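Posting for a labmate who doesn't have an account.
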Amino acid sequence: MRKINTFWNWFQDNNQTIKNLINETPKTQKHLYFWLNRHLGYYCKELDFLIIFPKKEKEKAELIITANGNQNFFSQVNELIKKAPALRHWKFTAFIQPTENINKIIEGLDEPYVFQEITIKTSEIKFLPLNYDDQTKKLDITVYLKNFKLYCNTKTWEQAIYIIIQDLLGEKSAYQNINFVQLAQMPNNHEEFIHLYELQYFIDTMSSS
């Protein structure tokens, strides 16, 4: 409890500066990010954060606390958010939530992800199931990518796909439903493959069958 209060007291003292961080100099941004990460680490080193800055001045900024899919630290995320202060300009969220832009993805109008040398859109990714474990209710899948052969030797692909799946399903669902992800080059003939944005629907179908 004491460590939780220490974190929120520091955040409350600096919340206006953090909210306007996107307008600060790179030096100030680096300084604040360092101390935000350090104070979160004082509470639990396994947790991480994301900040969603508002597009309009009067909108709230959002601080998302994540366990990066590690169930062992889900309770720490929940406890921290439960004790969050009521700040007029902030929204506090436990875990990365499922995307609300699914219609844009279906229409191919989604914004691309950029990971170092890789640029990819969720709408361009497909998958096929490998195995579904009835006991654990977890799914193994193969994810097919257009330019996988070009960058297949980099670990960036694995990190990118994990983030994309987490954004699609939400942090908790990704951990609870996905066991293993294998990456492969998209073949020329992939009409029968399943769009990645249909993954949650596929999981729900398997669970109810």
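Reply:
Got it, the structure tokens are right above this. Residues 102-208 form one domain.
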